[in-house]
Amino acid sequence: MRRHRGWRTSGAAWVGAAAAAWLVAASCRTMQQPRTIPAGPAPQAAPQAAPEAGAVVVPTPAVRVGILVDVSRVSIGADTGVVVSGVDPGYRAAVSRATFVPASTGMRVLPRFRVQVASLAEQAGAQNVAVRVEETVQIRPTVQWNPQTSTHQVRVGAFVTRDEALRLATRLTRSGLPGAYVVEEGPPPAAGRIRLLETGEELTVATVIPSKPTDLLTADAAPYRGILEVRASEMGGLIVVNVVHTEDYLRGVVPNELSPLAFPAMEALKAQAVAARSYVLHHKGEFAARGYDICATQACQVYRGKSSEHEMTDRAVAQTHGVIATWRGQAINAYYTSTCGGFTEDGENVFDGESIPYLKGVACAPERTAWATLHTTAPPREVGSEPGLGRDLSLLVSLGVLDPALEAPRKLSGIPTDPEIRSWVARLHQALHRRECESTVNGALARRGTFAQYLVGSLCWEERGRRLLAPPDSDYLLEVEDRASLKGEEERLAAAVLIQEGVLSPFADNTLRPGAALTRGEAILLLARAAERAGPPALVAAEFAGMAAGQVTILRGEEPESFALDPAVRLFRSLDGVRAAASELSLAVGDRVNLVVADGRVIFLEAEQSRKGAAADRSSRYYRWEARLTPADLARGLGRYGDVGTVRDIVPRRIGVSGRVVELTVRGSAGEIVLKGLRIRAALGLRENLFVIERETDSRGAVERFVITGKGWGHGVGLCQVGAFGMAQSGSTFEQILQHYYTGIQLATAY
Ligand SMILES: [Zn+2]
């Protein structure tokens, strides 16, 4: 899911203008002999193996994607070899594999960005400033005489990138040393060259195409459509650019931004495709200085080439071929966010910049429909006092092990007969698709110790006891008060195995009571644990993927599976291991569920939920989350924005249309700063700006911990992806989805 990138207001919009056809090696009219001969049986044939120049064409409109940035090495291949050409006069070589490294390895770019804090005529004054700077940022500045300006210049830090230097300058300004700005020292880095290891040739830019136009190139084993270009980065590494048709680029983006497995709704995927297409056209050329149009990470749109393509998202791209969202005839800056929490926010409240008419906060009720609510006609029933017995009974009834008639407290407190126990165990094996072993025990099966031995024998677990449990293990597991009451070695081992497998637990007084009689209820608890231990195929653990038209969709492998929901399904919520029956259950996409399916219908469904919210599961990470931060945690995150001393309080200063905190005041022992938009999330390390703050204080009233409870995930601007899925599920088209989240836009065809 896309997070964000910096705001851009200047219109790099690109609509309809067809780029010139991108002909590979068009400049390579003069063919040069390759310096090495490709691996193969007929070396003399190698030069002729290279195809004619221009044989591989990336159709227009193409996009240049920076797939690998600042890497130290890349290996490019194709099934039948590759052809490397360079702009360096007509260079061309056919090789089985092309490996590039920076030509000037070891020659790292020197840090040349510094922060100038002051420029003073008096040396003493400059020295004073230097002392204050060092106290503030703990970095020793230099004081240099500049004959051109006749001043003593105080400069601090040395950074490879301008951004890092800018952060230090901002920090100084906020700490009461205004006027700090970034300066460059020393000569600019020379344009680097790259070396093709297979030939030893040095090039400035290499273009790599497959020898056979129908082959796909791989970069470090990942396949890419289109062609690849390699050049040196200013950081001393390599930049690998995938030049690819825009529609093929989108096939490698959409599944990473909205998973067709977790969100299998065609209209939502089509809306995502249009948003991603609009986004790339709007941002095209943003990284031109580094030789590409757009990056391949979350900072732009996640692109993983051919390996991430999926049949459903391919269709979503094809069915919206060339369609973009426009405003005043130009492709919009189509921001999208994972889960908005119920209301999206105005763009200018989250990103710096002027108001954008189509990025307005809107209600996102559809998000709730993405959270399916399951109902059952079979309400929860009270069946006994043992915790979890109702759920275990339901599980075993659903599995066909027990008769529903048992669901009566009076029956459950009774002692089961031998034939009853034998029939339960036999049906348990049938339900679990396990072969039952013959189990010979003496005496009544309802004696707890005997039951344990019988169960272990019939589950064929005797061997686990003999071979997987060392004597010290069973001694350790059997440190119960009444271990002497276990009859013989067989019973001892059976009890140890059941404890180890999580089937048997001691009573609260640390006894196993092997000589006591077992009630039906107690037997059910043990059998249910054994069923869980066996797991699939009877009891399916999966991820909830949606609910539509009475069908529950789950994911447990690659492909989603759908089952009808039985009207009398037994519903349970498991909250940190405590299971409670429910008459309705709200599920989010991605929730962990356990279910029993019989004759194609879901008859038992248990959702795993967590009180902790954010920490434990994916659904609440989307929807509700909590962060607990100490003042020290806050000071760490604030570091790059300023220093307020010891953090005393954080107070929302301005609330946006959606309820998001868009300005936040941080008060400390040494002053206060105001954070805006995305910087709030970054400084506090939160998932969203939609939150409330509570405070835990010590006995003197000082804040010990800020308890921040929030909703949503992402920046909250533009199309809400989970909301789009909800809209699609309730029958909206991709046009309606886009028009809901982008105010006043029109759809148009860009090419
Ligand atoms: Zn939403």
Account of the protein in words:
The chain is built from 22 helices and 36 strands. The strands form 9 sheets. Strands 3, 4, 5, 10, 11, 12, 13, 14, 15, 16 and 17 form an 11-stranded mixed β-sheet that branches. It folds into 5 domains: 22-103 and 192-327, no CATH class; 113-184, Sporulation related repeat (Alpha-Beta Plaits), CATH 3.30.70.1070; 372-379 and 539-615, Beta Barrel (OB fold (Dihydrolipoamide Acetyltransferase, E2P)), CATH 2.40.50; 400-534, no CATH class; 624-711, no CATH class. Helix 6 runs antiparallel to helix 21 (721-729) and helix 15 packs across helix 16 (488-500). Residues 1-55 and 611-621 have low confidence and may be disordered. 26% of the residues lie in helices and 29% in strands. 45% of the residues are buried. It is of the alpha+beta class and 751 residues long. The chain is globular and about 105 Å long. Residues 339-340, 364, 367, 720, 722-723 line the site of zinc ion.
